[in-house]
Design a protein that fits this description.
TIM Barrel; calcium; about 475 residues; alpha/beta; metal-binding; 13 helices; about 30% helix; signal
Length: about 475
């Protein structure tokens, strides 16, 4: 009697198994079908070359110089770094580790003597040629250190093949002496004839309002507003061989520029600087309007910080609507002039920072990492992994494969033999899985973050199912 019961039970189990397999296959088909309903958005259309910051530094040390994905910049300061003249040495002690991690450039704070002396962050410049070697404004060293320490830092960075960008504040000055100003009918703090370096002396005739007009595009904080229309000012800033720009580049050995508050003057100023001085440049144009950013970048012949991307990331990640990442951004409009960022010394609004870094370090543009995020606030190992992925896998044009409130998947389409990648960002509280179309047929892929242990093989039609952890990301490419 037991044998027939066993046979019936066995048949039932087989039927249940086959039914389960059929249901699973149906679910898999439905899931793939659902993903196929999403129309892939080909975001950029160009030949796939990576972002370029200009000529690569020579590699006398044999260190790695170029990489397939382009560069990564480190903002090597934050607001109110420790005073006492130690900052240049602090950064100098880190450049070897940063170079080994794949950082290609560092952006330093304004390096010259400013009105607030030893306590200034440098954005109130007095003497452009005092790097901490003249006793003025109550101090010899700047907040960050001495000229010798700055030169050593730049030398050490270059030994790691890291470029060094100077923060240039040329909209306004501070720390001048009071003088009678016939254009205003009052006294103004515009007499800089006593600067200790003896270079680029200036008076009220070199500031608005003056014989060239009442004002330019903008002023800042009531500080004296430099008149770039004045031939004397142009000469000292970017034309003469011993002027500010060429001295910084040829004597101090800076490789490029971050222009502060470019809303305060015409884009032609940066254009003229770049044409006469050279080097990489990026402008701080605090505006979320992509048209404004793109117009300025083209007119200035310069890169620009992608504030449009910054604000969209904030809304997408913290507002739980990743579909907002489909919207227009500077890197989509002009990927070779967009510098992306998650945080800087002025603004720190994004809470889901690692998700944001997984976005900018897998997408186009020139990504920037904020010092405190890297050294203090986030997991350095995870950031180093993302830097490695950016440098080695984030190549080619960009296609958005899927997006909704809490899922976003995009593909970098590869360049010059490099296969590119697929990034999956999950802002939900559970693991997610999704079918996506790759550029690889019958090929095993893996998640280079290690967040997923899957090693799936793409189908003949290049489709594959991948997964992503909750409040996390996975980044897939050919397993090689």
């Amino acid at each position: 009697m037991k044998k027939p019961q066993t046979k019936v039970l066995f048949i039932s189990l087989i039927s249940a198994f086959l039914c389960s397999c059929s249901q699973t296959e149906t679910l898999e088909t439905d899931s793939k079908s659902e993903s196929q309903q999403f129309e892939i958005i080909n975001v950029t259309n160009h030949d796939g070359k990576p972002f370029s910051t200009g000529a690569s530094r020579s590699s006398s040390t044999g260190k790695y110089v170029d990489n397939p994905g382009g560069g990564v910049m480190m903002q090597a300061f934050y607001w109110d770094v420790p005073a006492g003249g130690t900052w240049w040495n602090t950064i100098s002690s880190k450049v070897t580790a940063w170079g080994n991690a794949g950082i290609g450039s560092i952006w330093l704070p304004p390096a010259s003597k400013a009105q607030n002396g030893a306590f200034s962050m440098g954005y109130d410049p007095t003497d452009y040629f005092d790097f901490g070697d003249f006793n003025q404004n109550g101090t010899t060293e700047t907040r960050f250190g001495s000229k010798t320490e700055l030169v050593n830092l730049i030398t050490n960075a270059h030994a790691q093949n890291i470029k060094v960008y100077a923060d240039i504040v040329i909209n306004h000055n501070s720390g001048g002496q009071s003088e009678a100003n016939p254009f205003t009918g009052t006294n103004t703090w515009t007499n800089f004839n006593g600067v200790a370096s003896g270079k680029f002396k200036r008076t009220y005739v070199n500031f608005y309002k003056n014989s060239f007009g009442n004002n330019d595009e903008g002023s800042f904080g009531g500080f004296p507003d430099l008149c770039h229309a004045d031939p004397y000012v142009k000469d000292w800033l970017w034309i003469r061989a011993d002027g500010v720009g060429k001295y910084y580049k040829n004597t101090m050995k800076f490789d490029g520029w971050r222009f502060d508050y470019v809303k305060g003057f015409g884009a032609w100023v940066v254009n003229a600087w770049n044409a006469n001085v050279g080097g990489f440049s990026v402008g701080e144009l605090w505006d979320s309007n992509v048209n404004v950013l793109n117009d300025w970048a083209n007119n200035a012949n310069s890169s620009v910080f992608d504030f449009a991307c910054y604000y969209k990331m904030n809304d997408a990640f913290d507002g739980n609507n990743l579909a907002l990442l489909n919207d227009d951004m500077m890197w989509k409009r002009n990927p070779y002039k967009a510098v992306t960022f998650v945080t800087n010394h002025d603004t720190d609004e994004i809470y889901s920072k690692l998700l944001a870094y997984s976005y900018i370090l897998t997408h186009e543009g020139y990504p920037t990492i904020f010092y405190r995020d890297y050294e203090e606030w986030l997991d350095k190992n995870k950031l180093n992994n993302l830097i490695w992925i950016h440098n080695n896998k984030a190549t080619g044009t960009t296609s958005i494969l899927y997006s909704d409130n809490d899922e976003y998947l995009a593909r970098r389409n590869g360049y010059n033999g490099n296969p590119g990648l697929v990034v999956y960002i999950n802002n939900s509280d559970v693991w997610q899985e999704r079918w996506i179309q790759t550029n690889w047929a019958n090929t095993q892929i893996k998640d280079f973050t290690g967040n997923s242990t899957w090693y799936p093989t793409t189908q003949a039609d290049k489709w594959v199912k991948i997964q992503c952890p909750p409040k996390g990301y996975s980044i897939w490419s050919i397993n090689q």
